[in-house]
Structures are given as structure tokens and as C-alpha cells.
Amino acid sequence: MSQYKNDVNKILEDLENHIQGFSYGTSPKELYEPISYIMSLGGKRIRPLLTLLAYSLYREDYQEILTPAMAVEVFHNFTLMHDDIMDNAPLRRGKATVHEKWNANTAILSGDVMLVRAYDMLLDIEPKLLPICMALFNQTAAEVCEGQQHDMNFENMGTVSEAAYIDMIRQKTAVLLGFALEFGAILAGAPPTDAKKLYEFGVNIGIGFQLKDDLLDVYADKEKFGKQVGGDIISNKKTFLLLKAKELATGDQNTALENWINAKEFDKEQKVQAVTEIYDQIGIKNLTESKMKEYFDKGFAQYASINVPNQYAYQVLLKLTQDLVNREK
Amino acid sequence: MSQYKNDVNKILEDLENHIQGFSYGTSPKELYEPISYIMSLGGKRIRPLLTLLAYSLYREDYQEILTPAMAVEVFHNFTLMHDDIMDNAPLRRGKATVHEKWNANTAILSGDVMLVRAYDMLLDIEPKLLPICMALFNQTAAEVCEGQQHDMNFENMGTVSEAAYIDMIRQKTAVLLGFALEFGAILAGAPPTDAKKLYEFGVNIGIGFQLKDDLLDVYADKEKFGKQVGGDIISNKKTFLLLKAKELATGDQNTALENWINAKEFDKEQKVQAVTEIYDQIGIKNLTESKMKEYFDKGFAQYASINVPNQYAYQVLLKLTQDLVNREK
């Protein structure tokens, strides 16, 4: 394993120990057990890791900000707990969602307390940095909710424009990655222009990640993907691929696509194969890859424009991001 | 109208104008319209009023803290929006609840944004006061959620002790009144011991208010009450009155009470009359009044022990609280 991976794993281990040792409260247990539960389901901890790595560009004592970094993860898991209710999702990371394991009321109220606890963790910040960090956190949190509402609205809309879709994924998923990076930089006392560039780095990379998610759902290598290929096609999810296909399909393609979308009963494999063929005819894979690359390039250009004291830490964050960009599942 | 009422009404008018002129956001409208809607349903605005009056004990420029005071009201309405989903309540202040007028998902997500906006309003505080105010706000917010969870748990429990019930209403409703007062005092730069006494004043008065609510539901003057007398009896709500009755009823009283509680079909008026008669036999009205008076006395004793620069403002807050104590609906 490369040295960079060792370094990242050491940080992740410290973070994980901090998360596991944290107490959110004890009574009533119906309120706090779901918080420990969702936080223990794992996940890659990308967001707090980005905070710690951005901080490490400027300072070496990342252990000092484990609690504020954890706030980003707690906030993220709060949105998952509430989104899962709204999306009626039975599973999260292969385990029962909170509203399934307990009930919707518990998932609402536990989520509310999680958000409060995330703010509590922000109090671990140096007081003079609290107002600016909290303002950015609030802005980000509101945008994440706005993105979720737009996403739900899209489900009831016939067509969604590319611009509206990109803006939705920017709000729903990308701004939190941007905030995670900017937050770490601010906590380290980075120059404000650097902090803003790190935000833009995160947002652009984040949009690219979501486009990659959309793409992998259809074009992933079955062996490597680890979940069903074509799930979005089966459920008519309005991904970048589908909305571009609806925009560009003509004549017979269009008829066939609409028929598959409107079909009430169908063979799943057949639908995935048929819609993928339409995508192939239109060249959706290339279109999505090129859009994704556009955002990745924009993000990396922002990152390349900052000048940090710790060049080694700079390479670590760069390599981690590149690995995420190149992931195949 | 007395001068004190004129003063209170002037403050309420300024507060109401501030609330009405505030923008929570615009797009997507599904997210922000429910916030304006619930905030426009009115209510007595007691909590922010307490913040402004506590501030006025020490300073005259309450207009400076209208936004932070409003945070308390926005937080309160956030809890109402989410509680109404959990309680499956069709009406709030005579109008459709948010989850009825829109849907549960919208009520979840709009509520989430309301909580974020409440924190945003706290940023209007002098930076050096932000950490202490936010710590108290977080503590209060978590306790309110804990109280709501305890209240929901009680619905599935055979018996609830007096101590557990008092603690539940302390968390669910009283601590926010305590916070509202302490918050105003802190913003005005009051001595910390005064601020803490004002908190205790609010908490004890708040417990008294809830006991009074429980009492009025059964013993209010029908003409003055404005809503159905006995609603809690009809729905078997575990109020202070019911849990004391279950604790103290013996023999035939106990059998009759249990029969009414377990009856699936019944004449509402008959049930209210019969249960009220059992309450009368046991002396529940006196018991509740005496418990209520205990908390009111404790609260007013705390208030009497502070020494503030503005004696007139002291009388205004005292009279307002006494009016609330003496209300008959």
C-alpha cells in the first residue's frame, strides 16, 4: 500500500474512533439509539475526511478538529435518515433504514436531534471562527434541503432540463463536499481565497461524482459494481442519462423509450437491456462522460490554483480525490 | 386598557411586523411556502415576547434583538410542524396542518429548513455571545425533542408516574419558556445569576401552564373556553388529571375508569360526564390546582429574587405572566 493510503487510513481510524466514542445522549433510548445505529452503518466518511485533509494542507494537528469534522458526517446522516423516510427506502447500506427498523415518527424526531447535535459539535470551533463557519453551514444545510425538494419535484415532472438537473445535484450532494473542504481550510486559518477555491473544487468534483453515480448505475462492470446494474432504469429515476435521452431521442427511439417508461408490467432485465440500447444509439455514455469530465476538470483546475504550505498533504488530498474519480463502484 | 397592556401590544406589533417582513427563502416554493404558512397562523407569540421583555428588564432597545427573538418562535413552530405529523393532527389553530395541506414529506423537509433558519437568526447575536446562547439553545432544543419522545412513549404505557409526567412537560414545553427568558437576559448583558433565575422562573411557570392546560380541558367554563371541553377525556390523553386518577382511584371508581378508557364505542358527552364525576369524587381538581400553584409559586419566587434596573419593565413582565396564569381559556 502506498504511503498516501497509509496516511489516509490513519486519519480515518482516528475519525472512526472519535465517532464510535461519541455519546449523543441516552434517554429516551428511542431517540438516541437510531442515531448510533445510522452512524454505525459505516460509509466512506468522505465528508469529514475532506475536512480533515483540507485542514492538513495548512496545519498538522488535525486531531484538534475531529469533533467539528464529525459535525459534517452527523449532518450528512441526518439528511439520509429524513430522505429515507421521504423516499420510502427500505435499506441503507444493506441494513434496514431507521423508519423501517423503528418507525417514521422516530426517524423524524431522531433526525431532528441529530441536526441539533451537529450544531452542538460546531461549538467545538474556536469562538472567533464560529460565526463564519455557522453561516456557511446554514447556507449549505438549506441548499441540501432545497436540492432534496427539487429532486422530489422532478419525480412529478414530465421533462427536466439539463441545467435544472445539474443545479439539483449541486444542491443535494455537491455543496456539502464543497463545504467540507472550505470548513477544514477555515478552521486551519487558510487564506479566504484558498478556502473559496477549495469550496469550488469540492462542488465541481461533487457534481462529477453524481454524474458518475448515474453512469455507473447503467454502465458499471457487473463483477465490480456490487449492486444491480440498471436499478435507475427499472425505477424510471430521472438521472442525467434519462433526461438527456428524453431530450435527444427522435422518432422510434422516442416512442420506444416512452413505452418502456410507461410500461406497468415488464421484465426487468429486458427493460434494462432495451433502454441501455437506446442510450447507446444516442451516445448517452459519451455525453455523460464528457459532462462529468467537464466538472472534474473544473474542480481540479481550482485545486491546482491554490498554493499550500504542505506539499505532501496537497498530494494526499489530490490522490484521494483522483481515486474517487476513478472508482468503478 | 392599562399602560402595561399598551406597552406589551407595542412590542408585539413590532415583533409581528418583523415576522411578517422576514423572508425564509423562495425556491423551491414547496419548501418555503409551508414556513410562511405556519408562521402566519398566529398564536400569542409568547416565547419571543418573553425574550423581548426579559431583555427590556436591562435595556431599552429591544428592537435590536427582534431577529434572535424571532428565532425562538421559528424554532417553536418547527416543533409544531413536526409534532403535527407525529400526532397525525389535522388542525393547527383552526387551519389545516402543513402535512394535511401539502403532505408529510413537505412537512418534514420544510421543518428541517425552519430549524436551520432558526440557527441562522441566532447569527444576528453579538459574536461574543453566540457560543453561550447557542449552547443553551442546543440544550433546550434537544430537551424539547426528548420531551416529545417521552410523550409518545407514554401513549403506549399502562401507567405513568407523576414525576415522569412532570419531567416530560418540563422538557416538552417548559424549558423553551425558560430559555426564552434567559436568552433575552443574556442578550441584554444581565448578570448570569439573574439570567439563570429567569430561566427557572420560565421553567416553573411553564410547568404550571401545562398543568393549567390539562385542567382547563376538563374544568373550563364552556362559554369562555372556545373549544370542546373534555377532549382529553374522549381521547384518553395521559394528562396529569388522568394519571393521578389512575393512581388514586380505588374499587368501583377504578373499574369504572378502566371501563371508560377501554370502551371502543361510547357517547362522547356521557364519557366526559362520567370521567369528570370520577375526577370529582377523587378530588382531582384540587390536587391539580395545588400542584399547579406549587410551580407558579416557585416560579414567582425566582422572579421576586432578581433585582433589575428597570422597575417598570419588571412590573410589565410580572403582569403579563400573571395574566397568563389567570387565563380561562
TrEMBL record, chains A, B:
Domain of life: Bacteria
Keywords on record: Magnesium, Metal-binding, Transferase
Cofactor(s) recorded in Swiss-Prot or TrEMBL: Mg(2+)
A UniProt-annotated Pfam family: polyprenyl_synt
GO biological process, one term: isoprenoid biosynthetic process
InterPro entries cross-referenced by the UniProt entry: Isoprenoid_synthase_dom_sf, Polyprenyl_synt, Polyprenyl_synt_CS
Molecular function per GO: metal ion binding; prenyltransferase activity
Family label: Belongs to the FPP/GGPP synthase family.
Protein name: Geranylgeranyl diphosphate synthase type II
Origin species: Cecembia rubra
